[in-house]
Amino acid sequence: MQLGTRWAVGAEPPENVPTPVQTAIAAEEQELLAQGVDTSSWRWTLTWLERRPVVELDDGTTIRQHADGSVSLTRPDEDHDDDED
User: Fold this and answer.
1) Which ranges in 1-85 belong to alpha helices (H)?
2) What are 63's strand-pairing partners?
3) What is the pLDDT confidence band of residue 42, given thresholds at 50, 70 and 90?
4) Is residue 5 a contact partner of residue 43, using CB atoms and an 8 Å limit?
5) What residue spans define the domains of the chain?
6) Can you list the positions of beta strands (E) in the chain?
7) How far apart, in whole angstroms, are the C-alpha atoms of residue 82 and residue 18?
8) Please, are residues 37 and 81 in contact by the beta-carbon 8 Å criterion?
9) Are 9 and 42 in contact (CB under 8 A)?
10) Across all residues in the chain, what is the average pLDDT?
11) What is the pTM of this model?
12) Region entry Disordered: which residue ranges (predicted)?
């Protein structure tokens, strides 16, 4: 695992985050905004696993890009295994 960086919700993700992952981040932020969630102190954390980005929000929401290029989003309240790799 390669360590990455953190940034605030609503801020631009780092440039090295692939466009499909950036799109998923923006969609999740819009969803949270629509729900009225106060994310003013929340941060995204970017790490790299097998040279693919894994982005986690402070609430546990995780966005990852898989080897085939697909992107998945898992929320902490979703109860399922994440063994798609």
Assistant:
1) 19-34
2) 55, 73
3) very high
4) no
5) 2-74
6) 2-8, 43-49, 52-57, 62-65, 71-74
7) 21
8) no
9) yes
10) 91
11) 0.86
12) 60-85
